[in-house]
User: What shape does this take?
Amino acid sequence: MSEKNLSRRTFVARLVGGVAACALALTVVACGAAPAASDNADGAAQEQQATMAVTVEIDATAGEGEKTTSEVELPEGATAYDALVAAADDVNASDSEYGMYVQGINGLAGGDFGDMSGWMFEVNGEMAEVAASECELAAGDVVTWLYVTEFTE
Assistant: This one.
């Protein structure tokens, strides 16, 4: 996305879609399978879960902040929200009927730079169509969190 401005209608449509996806994902996670078990030195069963590495970029430059990049190790099946929580020092989010709504990252919150400012995210350069807590990642994915200050039509 070369500009940080989107139409308000597009933003709202994506936000609603994301929230709906988050609700579905929570249902899937709640019904998910148990991790594989293996034996330790004592012969007792021990749970193991495969992991994956993803890159998380947090771009707060539109809000007079910094752009940071970090690689995080997550369990397979982790979401864009899980990656954010692993990479950021402080995440302010609340659960909604559509999934997790990210209000603030590292002290920069939606509304700090006007009524239309807030956080959006992309995976591998594509704007997400679901909420971050519903967006399952794969090994090698790049999740970019963008702080935007204005949406225009």
Q: What stands out?
A: DSSP finds two helices and ten strands in the chain. The longest helix spans residues 8-30. The chain has a mean pLDDT of 79.
